[in-house]
Input
Amino acid sequence: MPRADRPFRSRIPGRLPRVDPFIASLLATVALAALLPARGAAAPLASGAATGAVAVLFFLYGARLSAKEAWDGLKQWRLHGTVLTVTFGLFPLLGVAAHLLVPGLLSPQLYQGLLFLTLLPSTVQSSIAFTSIARGNTAAAVCSATFSSLFGIVLTPLLAAFLLHTKGGISPGSVLQIAEQLLLPFAAGQLLRRRLTAWMARHRAVLGLVDRGSILLVVYSAFSAAVVGGIWGTLSLPRLAALLLVEAALLALVLTTTLLAGRRLGFDRADLIAIVFCGSKKSLASGVPMATVLFRGPAAGLMVLPLMLFHQLQLMVCAVLARRWGAQSQAVEAAATAVATAPGRGTAPDRRRTSPSSVR
Output
């Protein structure tokens, strides 16, 4: 997946992470679209460029993801099943339940965007990075995040067709066409993966710029259409504040549920950490291009806005959790080493310290 999902790490221990640089770029792109939207003859050019950017993004997704490594990780099916259940089960249910907040806290348009973000797959880089920082099961995080991305290519359009009902938007009859726009470039990337692996490794920095540039182009096209269509007139600061509050509650609820469910199911500490970080995230890198394919016209701008805010929120909260759990793991390992090397002590570490309940 693109580097857009990679967390921004603060260099000063104990300090809250600063704004993700990519989020800053996205906000600058939104500001540019507000000041200089693509109008007239420029509008179809921007739309066509965005369509091409989506194809490029999903081609690169397919070229990067190793299906073989994912299938090799099937032996941990309980863990992967738990993550997929949270990603494509719990999240959408909470999204549907959030309809109770319309119109009191959320406008209908913002609710549609919130519901859309609950249908997206998990991130890849961020989930793996946070699991590694917290000293969790990184191999399991790689497999779970990969499975989520693969399933999301199909499940997100299907769930959107079933749950989202927007004027001129998704209908069950258009699911096949939508899936083809996403699946064909992805499948082409998978087919050419072996031939491209070495080349992509040599040009990683350039491809990172292509990733981010493509997403920024898609965002510019979507928000330009929103500005020209006059959608921003329906958005106010109190609505934005309410959206942030709802998203914070959503993230807190999912984090708590995954933690408690993982303990209940008997997962050890390392697996529990992987479940929490893989199950609680939503992919901005997948969501932005998907939104432009699923929602034509001005509506795409407001559909992306809740996802952009949730992306930064999840990075900040999970960065704090990862550092805290990583410090706990270091303390546990130090205590186990001290016990093992103490005169007259056995060499086996105290496994009670590595139980799920030690993750707090």
Observations:
- Residues 6-17, 348-353 have pLDDT under 50 and may be disordered.
- DSSP finds 14 helices and no strands in the chain.
- The longest helix spans residues 299-341.
- The domain at 20-333 is CATH 1.20.1530.20 (Na+/H+ antiporter like fold).
